[in-house]
Amino acid sequence: MAYEIPVTQARAEFADLINRVVYGGERVVVTRHGKPLIGLVSAADLERLEALGKPAADSAEDPMISSVSRVGSLGSAPGERRRFGIAAEHRGPDVR
Length: 96
Description:
alpha+beta; 3 strands
């Protein structure tokens, strides 16, 4: 079972949450208005989760680099830049 915490409280207790996950082996679910937003899991748990969904051919690739590459290639949802007041966007090294 995961420990649930509202995002406002998680922001204030972030260092403690990291310790609970890393040293206590807990899984933390951060919620907003009672709905799950994100889950905090240890790096070991993340590796196990990624190994479950990864084909054998990709096993030589570093799982963290692979997951960051996938996240980096995703664009923002429409309106998210305005919602969070983001004025700039990273377009990669080849876009001018």
